[in-house]
Amino acid sequence: MGKAPKKRSLADKVRKTKTTSEIKNNPFEVKINRKKFDVLGRKSKHDVGLPGVSRSKAVNKRKETLLKEYKQKNRCSKFIDRRFGEYDTKMAPEDKILQRFTMERQRVHEKKDVYNLNEEEELTHYGQSLAEMEKFNDVVNSDDESEEKGLLSAELTASHFGGGGGLLRKKALGEEEEGGQRAKSRQELIEELIQKSKQEKRERQVQREEAQELTEKLDQDWKNIQSLMVKKTPKADKQEEKPKLEEYDMMVRELGFEMKAQPSEKMKTPEELAKEEREKLQKLEADRLRRMMGEEVVEGAQSQIHFSADDLNDGFVLDKHDKKTLAYQDGKWNMGEEEEEEEEDEAEDEEGEGESSEEQESDAEEDKVEEEEEEEEEEEEEEGSGEDDGHSDLESEQESENEEEEEASPKPKKTLSKEEVKAQQEAAKAELPYTFAAPESYNDLKDMLRGHTSDNQRLIVARTQKSNHPSLAVGNKLKLQKLFGFLLEYIGELATRSPPELSTIDKLIPEVYALCQMFPDAACKAMQSILGDAAHSMEETLEVKGHAAFPTLDMLIYLKVTALLFPTSDFRHPVTTPALLFISQALTKCPVRSLQDLTSGLVLCSLGVEYVSFSKRFLPELINFLVGTLHLAVQDKASLGYIVVPPFRASGKYSDLLVLSSSESCRSWSKKSLPLSATQQLDLENNPDRDTHRLTCLSTCLDLVKRCCLLYKDLPSFTHIFQPIRTLLSKHLSTQTLPLQELSSEIVEAISSMPVTQSALVFDKRKPIPLKLLTPKIVEVLDYGKKRGSTREEREKERLKHKYKREFKGALREIRKDSRFLAREKLNEVMNRCGYNSS
Question: What are the two backbone dihedrals, phi and then psi, of residue 643, each rounded to the nearest 5 degrees?
Fold first, then answer.
């Protein structure tokens, strides 16, 4: 049997259309695929190609296939009969017609009868039928009103609501028939109705009053009968029969007398506090100016009233003591009421707290006694006693009004004499102003503080800061930042004076700290500029001379202020780190040539210890300087046993600065702190004064060594670091400094008591274990240039994978071309609809 003929599609017909010879011969239509190299025996099918022809064939193919499918999409040329039972062959035609009619009637009925109510259902409201409620059979039950109230008579209805003409005519005819009298007019009928209604109202009022009188009479009779029926027990029996209160009831009653909590004021913001402080200072300044001009000052508000623990907060105030105080003077009883009243009036504002507390305690005791008496009286009184005391409240109100009028009446003002006014003016001029303007320059600050004591200078700076708070005006922030810089400059000037005003600097430091907390960035920049200038000047001096002098007193104070204003425990800080480096550089590069230089160096050492007290950072320059300082006190420098580090020398001109001239000075010396003024000017005229200062320097040095031992005791190399100090104190200075023998022995014991924790470094005796290595996997390749795999199944698998990848790529490529073709066709349709010519 032969193969079945393959069905030819339209795409095959398009693909097999032959190209003309003109296209084949056109060099612009032909594309030659060049080869990298020729292979003998290999024939290539795609050496020459026609891309234009291939593209046109693909377009024609898609027009015949894909375009037609796109145009016929979502189109249907068939009619579907969706009537009920049309395609059901088992149903009879009559059944189909009947079922369709029923469904049509149901659909119409559902639409029409949506809002129709069923007449058989009974409508209700709150459980009552609406049909019963429409009959209005409610009965009006009222004791106060008559049954006729609310009903309208025929005459009233006819006269007020129309239609009354016929009724009036009928009534007139009836009256004529009866008595032959004349008919009444409309006005007369209305008057009769009004009189009748008034008469009925009066009758009802009389009945109500009679009923009220009878009720009151009955109540009074019942009270008389009840008093006869109740047997009154004696008072002694009452007290015995009265049950004792339990502890819980007593606590409840005590809590009832306690004062309730008063609402506290809300927390105020820093801006509000600054505003209140400024207003207070402005008010005080205005009062001072009035006193200086001789004007009378209006007294401020009264001082805050003191409340004791026993105060009931009921508004009761005891104006004066009821009891008269007795005094014995010159053998006679002195009852000076007028003098005591004057003294009490003057001392009310100053000592009113103690008196008010005593008065309130006595009032509380009297109130307790009165309450007990009132309770006993209330038990004995009868219920009708309330009428007798009806006017007591009026009398108390009149008394309180009289007291208020007396309090409100202004006291006569005291007139001051000319001498008193003049003295008041002089006192006001001597006072400090309460408000100050922020200085614009350093000279303004100096003028502001010149001639004042240290306390007044601190007060002036504080008031300037409060009067120019940043929250009060826009430019105050810049003014206070400038004030911080001016204060630092002023502190430096105070330190350079002779003698230096250290007490004034101490008073100004809190205000400088407050400004630093308010403007940390500006304070940081100001201190950085000062430290930078000092470091640059020291470097320039070192480059020129090779050595530099120790920092002056103003720079030492700046370093101390830096430790107070900024944290010293940070690992790296923009202010304290440069300051610590400056201290280290000064301790290393500045040579010691006099006792004044040594004093400055010890002050720098104390500052260095303060800087590293929290972080416990090791400072080698500090230890080296302390070792050099102790070396200056050694007399015999032949065999030292330690190394001296610059700026000190083992022997030379300035290596005996701390050697005592005589041993007798040790007996008269007493321990004192090292004065800061010695760093600026040191006047030592004779040898005893020099020996005293030398011993003070040695004492300070040993104190610093002891503090360093406590700081660095946790270091592994502690014994090696302090080995030179141990050698100095145990061998060279053991017998020379007798007053400091106790302190030096403590330091030697502290150094020797520390255990040696480290051991010598040696190689490990065991052979080290090598690292684990992974053996590489070697795969033998037999067929070079072919697909891997030796078996037939693996080769078939690789071939199918390669074919699948190729077909998959071709399918993706065709899908992309189809989508681009459809996009072009859709664009052409849109262009044609809009009236654009596609050509």
Answer: -110, 135
Q: Do the beta carbons of residue 364 and residue 310 sit within 8 Å?
A: yes
Would you list the DSSP string of 128-171? EEHHHHTT-------SSS-TTTT---HHHHHHHSS-HHHHHHHH
- The reported pLDDT for the residue numbered 89 is 86
Backbone angles phi, psi at 334, to 5 degrees: -110, 115
Helix (H, G, I), strand (E, B) or coil at 676: helix
Q: Which residues of 367-399 are buried (b: 16+ CB within 10 A; e: fewer)?
A: eeeeeeeeeeeeeeeeeeeeeeeeeeeeeeeee
Which regions in the chain score pLDDT beneath 50? 1-2, 140, 142-147, 164, 167-168, 176-177, 300-304, 309, 318-323, 325-328, 335-366, 368-398, 400-401, 404-413, 838-839
Q: How far apart are CA 714 and CA 717, in angstroms?
A: 9
Which DSSP symbol is given to 730?
Answer: I
- Give me the pLDDT at residue 146, please: 47
Q: Which residues pair with 31 in a beta bridge?
A: 49
Prior bond to 499 cis, omega within 30? yes
What is the distance between the alpha carbons of residues 311 and 318, in angstroms, rounded to a whole number? 12
Question: What are the residues facing 334 on neighbouring strands?
Answer: 327
Q: pLDDT at position 555, please?
A: 93
Residue by residue, what is the 3-state secondary structure of 273-309?
HHHHHHHHHHHHHHHHHHHHHCCCCCCCCCCCCCCCC
Determine the pLDDT at residue 276: 81
Q: Which residues pair with 32 in a beta bridge?
A: 48
The Cα–Cα gap between 378 and 670 comes to 83
Residue 1 DSSP SS3 = coil
* Beta-carbon contacts of residue 786 (< 8 Å; ≥ 6 apart): none
Q: Please name which of 471, 67, 424 lies closest in space to residue 275, comparing C-alpha atoms.
A: 471
Report strand pairing: 124-125 vs 128-129: antiparallel
Report the pLDDT value the prediction gives residue 181, as an integer from 0 to 100. 60
pLDDT given at position 137: 55
What does the alpha-carbon distance between residue 10 and residue 12 come to, in Å, rounded to a whole number?
A: 5
pLDDT for 259: 72
The predicted structure's pLDDT at residue 617: 92
Give residue limits of the domains in the chain.
431-518, 552-753
Q: Give residue 136's pLDDT.
A: 55
